[in-house]
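Translate structure to sequence.
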């Protein structure tokens, strides 16, 4: 007989989205289990390079913003964005952005006048994910099951049952929950299990992403340090991001028009052209994080108690793609409206309340127990009305607490 565990909500996937959702649910008094295949001490990737101001506002509400501010680039490291012929080449332009230690009333920069207590934080996922994980572990309403793989899910009118495997001991675990949310990435097992299909553009661009260690690079910089460098030259264009502000960097080599992929582009050559260094410059490849930029939204015709983080976008923040996806959502038939986590909707930059109210009203009218969490929306974002309050109550949330 498998071990049986019961909870209100099961989240499949313990990355930044899954952990943020777990924190939000716990903040609302809801018991959560997070099932994650990686071990607790697994080093995170360098996929994400910053946390937006809107997300930092969410983390402020959830009590983890100050902890996140303590990690990342050194406090005196400039957050500037530079365009140049190469990292070590001729500087073409520079956007001045204060270091995190230089923030304050007198700070000058493109985001210093934003009406928010939480500005964008330039911090790599390598550093912020462990902070999120530690904070989640401190929550009494959240239980994290590391090295646990969900392999099967079934649902009925009463709830959802997930069958999982303990990847270390080989034990079989049955997890019974009221709702299940898939935050398990672009190749989501949960998405496939509920028959959700991706709609949109499957390939926008290919990217060779290389995490390198190059201790000598910082001292070779021709001018003031920067967080992000756009290399623009006739040999190879690309992007270089400071990871730790000392010796590690993430270099993105994007495919050009006419290149089906990057298999024919020598990685070492591209890195040297983007950096502007010769063949004798030494660096060490820490990891390869190659990826494909996509513009997709997952849609399904099967309402129920299972939701998914439904959007896949280019990591660089494709605003036009976001707008296109919003239009796709609005065009969907009433019964096929996409379920998603609130974090995904916030990532789309859905700042105007008209879209938020539209989604809430559609959720309130939907059939079945459609699971939607606008985890990033506060009372300032959603105007009070009988219809929006009904949507909050539909998900057992007090409209006054939002």
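Result:
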């Amino acid at each position: 007989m498998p071990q049986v565990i019961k909870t209100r909500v099961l989240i499949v996937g313990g990355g930044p989205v899954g952990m943020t959702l777990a924190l939000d649910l716990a903040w609302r008094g809801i018991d959560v289990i997070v099932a994650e295949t990686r071990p607790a001490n697994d080093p995170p990737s360098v996929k994400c390079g910053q946390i937006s101001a809107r997300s930092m506002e969410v983390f402020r509400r959830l009590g983890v913003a100050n902890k996140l501010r303590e990690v990342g680039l050194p406090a005196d490291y400039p957050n500037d964005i530079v365009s140049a012929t190469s990292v070590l080449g001729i500087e073409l332009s520079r956007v001045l952005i204060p270091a995190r230690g230089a923030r304050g009333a007198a700070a000058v920069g493109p985001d210093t006048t934003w009406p928010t207590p939480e500005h964008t934080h330039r911090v790599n996922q390598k550093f912020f994910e462990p902070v999120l994980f530690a904070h989640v572990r401190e929550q009494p309403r959240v239980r994290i099951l590391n090295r646990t793989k969900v392999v099967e899910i079934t649902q009925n009118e009463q709830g959802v049952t997930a069958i999982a495997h303990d990847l270390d001991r080989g034990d079989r675990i049955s997890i019974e929950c009221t709702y299940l949310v898939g935050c398990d990435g672009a190749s989501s097992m949960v998405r496939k299990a509920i028959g959700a299909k991706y709609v949109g553009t499957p390939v926008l661009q290919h990217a060779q992403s290389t995490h390198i260690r190059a201790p000598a690079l910082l001292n070779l910089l021709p001018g003031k340090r920067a967080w992000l460098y756009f290399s623009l030259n006739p040999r190879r264009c690309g992007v270089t991001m400071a990871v730790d502000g000392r010796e590690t960097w993430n270099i993105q080599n994007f495919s050009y028009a006419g290149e089906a992929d990057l298999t024919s582009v020598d990685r070492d050559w591209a890195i040297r052209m983007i950096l502007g260094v010769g063949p004798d410059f030494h660096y060490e490849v820490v990891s390869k994080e190659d990826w494909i930029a996509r513009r997709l939204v997952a849609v399904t015709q099967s309402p129920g108690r299972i939701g998914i983080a439904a959007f896949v976008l280019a990591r660089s923040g494709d605003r036009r793609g976001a707008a296109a996806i919003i239009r796709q959502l609005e065009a969907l038939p009433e019964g096929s409206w996409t379920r998603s986590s609130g974090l995904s909707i916030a990532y789309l930059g859905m700042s105007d309340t008209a879209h938020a109210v539209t989604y809430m009203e559609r959720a309130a009218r939907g059939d079945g127990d459609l699971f939607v969490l606008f985890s990033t929306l506060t009372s300032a974002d959603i105007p009070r009305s009988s219809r929006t309050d009904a949507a909050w109550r539909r998900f057992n949330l007090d409209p006054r607490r939002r």
